[in-house]
Amino acid sequence: MQPENTAIHEYSELPDGFLDATPETLCEVVPEPALIHLRGRREPAVAVVLLLHGNEPVGLHAIQQLLRHYTHRELPRSLTLVIGNPQAAAVKQRHLDQQPDFNRIWPGTEQPGSTEAARFERLVERLRQRGLFAAIDLHNNTGRNPHYACINRLDPSFMQLAALFGRTVVYFTRPRGVASMALAELAPSVTLECGHPEDHAGVQHAFEMVDAVLHLSAFPDHPPAPNAIDIYHTVARVRLRPGMRASTGTDADVRLEPDLDRLNFQMLPAGSCLVRRRPEVEDPLVVHAEDGGEVTGTYLETRGEEIRLRRDAMPSMLTLDTRVITQDCLCYLMEPMDTASLVRGAG
Ligand SMILES: [Zn+2]
Asked: Using one digit for the tens of pLDDT, what is the confidence trace for 195-235?
């Protein structure tokens, strides 16, 4: 790929074939990352990011449902679609092997320098020029998780935006380079985790959320009521050390219980067993704190074959999908935040 190939395709109306495209065929309509600007009654636009991960179709399905809903009717507010990675969607992958993860290379990234990173920098600049009301990045995940919203700032408008989706809210500042963090510079911004890729309720939930935000005239300047949302702070990310393999098989370096993902969003006391290790492998997992420092010994301890939590924590994104575990991580660890003090402090 040529380094100068960082232009962003922009459409001022819906390209032909968009409404009938599947994630696999969208690249025939929109071949590369692109902006699609659709005019509505109010300005500035709500930006909705979809298919940033090619194997997470909820965004495309929710937007198709929304646009069908508004057939022959004006949108309540302008809508800008940010088309993420149609090439990866064509082959149902998070990203192509030669590509970086498209939700790690937005401005603020710790992996700068790629053609794709330059392209997303351009894209954010274009959104800045046009102005933005709010940004919503739509994702699926593997494993059993509730639907939840993620925010990267604790401003009242961000908490209000998240509360429109549900009461479970995750606050994180790592990894860097995610879309919602870059777009937080422009407007209240969320990442929405809408359950498993086959979860139709996730599509409906995302559709209702986008429609609700399109109808807002402004964000309340006060935070949600203290009992309206539960905010969890991501404190650490658990990954495999390079070369390690995780699976439910008995020969794996890291052995996963078949129902491991039932632990997602459960508060686990210190001493709880997370996974087991093959006795020959010393230290198969590595834990990094939000600031990037290694904190494996703070959060995990090994007792025989068991790798246990060393302190109380709540996992999220635990999955049995070995590809996701290798490409991304085994899970995140979270701690509840004191919403009442937060809301008082944020006033
Ligand atoms: Zn994703």
From this structure: 999 999 999 999 999 999 999 999 999 999 988 999 999 99
CA–centroid distance, residue 274 to ligand 1 (Å): 23
Q: Which two tokens stand for residue 190?
A: 């969320």
Q: What distance in angstroms lies between residue 144's CA and the mean position of ligand 1's atoms?
A: 15
Contact between residue 347 and residue 170 where contact means Cβ atoms under 8 Å apart: no
pLDDT tens digits along 37-52: 999 999 999 999 999 9
For the entire predicted model, the pTM comes to 0.91
**Residue 272 DSSP symbol:** -
* Cα-to-centroid distance, 36 and ligand 1 (Å): 20
| Residue owning tokens 């709540």 | 314
Distance 137 CA to ligand 1 centre (A): 9
50 Cα to the center of ligand 1, angstroms: 9
Measured in Å, residue 341 CA sits from the centre of ligand 1 at: 31
Domains of the chain (ranges; CATH) run 4-224 (3.40.630.10), 233-336 (no CATH)
Q: Please give the pLDDT value at position 18.
A: 98
Residue from 107, 246, 244, 256 nearest 183 by CA: 107
Question: How many angstroms separate the alpha carbon of residue 139 from the centre of ligand 1?
Answer: 5
The rounded Å distance from CA 250 to ligand 1 centre is 29
Q: Report the C-alpha gap between 81 and 47 in whole angstroms.
A: 6
Rounded distance, CA 118 to CA 141, Å?
A: 26
How far is the centre of ligand 1, averaged over its atoms, from the C-alpha of 24 (Å)?
Answer: 16
β-partners of residue 300 are 309
- For residue 56, the CA-to-ligand 1 centroid distance in Å is 6
For 298-332, the pLDDT digits (tens) are: 999 999 999 999 999 999 999 999 988 998 899 99
Is pLDDT at 290 greater than 70 in this prediction? yes
